[in-house]
Amino acid sequence: MSELVDTFSNRLNNAMRIRNIKATELSLKTGIAKSSLSEYINGKYEAKQDGVYLLAKALNVNEAWLMGCDVPMEKNFDNNQEYVIDTRGLTHEEIESIKRYIEFIKNEKKNDKK
After folding, report:
1. How far is it, in rounded angstroms, from Cα 4 to Cα 62?
2. Does the model's pTM come out above 0.70?
3. How far apart are CA 36 and CA 32, in angstroms?
4. Please, what is the Cα angle at 103 between 98 and 106, to 5 degrees?
């Protein structure tokens, strides 16, 4: 796991500056209340996983980077990157089914290379 090198608040502020987006617009894009967003920006609180996801998506940044990890800010979609799947609203059984399907696809790719 990458080590933490910066704070969530600093990263959020930097991403907002780089993307030229104000708190009001970010609140509208994410559905996160302006008061909560203000607390994140000022470092009083850090967003929970679902909030980090929404913020990273709206700002088009890597979620791990936003949380302060030593990873690139930009989302780089390549075959070696792990992806976060939004499983909100799914049952445990449905999530397990998705995991099995992912493993099936990985195994199929391995078999194709042989």
Report:
1. 14
2. no
3. 7
4. 130
